[in-house]
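Service request form, structural biology core

Requester: graduate student, group of Dr. S.
Request type: structure prediction, single chain
Budget code: on file
Notes: please return the result as structure tokens.

Sequence provided:
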Amino acid sequence: MNLFQYKPFISAAGIYLDWKIECDALTKEDWESIARISYKSIPSFKFALGVPEGGIFLAYAIDHYANRDAEKILIVDDVWTTGSSMQKYAANLNLDNWIGFVAFSRGKLPDNVYCFLQFALKDSNELLKQ
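Core staff response, request fulfilled:
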């Protein structure tokens, strides 16, 4: 299974996209490496919660770097396209004081969401309008 797949699919937000980031291709060690590389770039957080299903492995890996005295909760997902999954998850938990972290972003991130690897594609905004 390849991490990057050039094939059409429908995102979790219901958007047609012509390539996919298949995070099921990542191993436990990959998730742990992403967490270890990234945690110093994320503001202090009390604990990490993973957006089901995609954020679970990364949340588990990055929670090792939590500061239990911190105030903010870290919500974690694998891929950010529109952010609807993360925002719905935070809303369902009634969280106001949260920050986010994603392994990959293919869309514009708000100021409270951090990312390991962000794709700066000229046409990414056009893809999201379809």
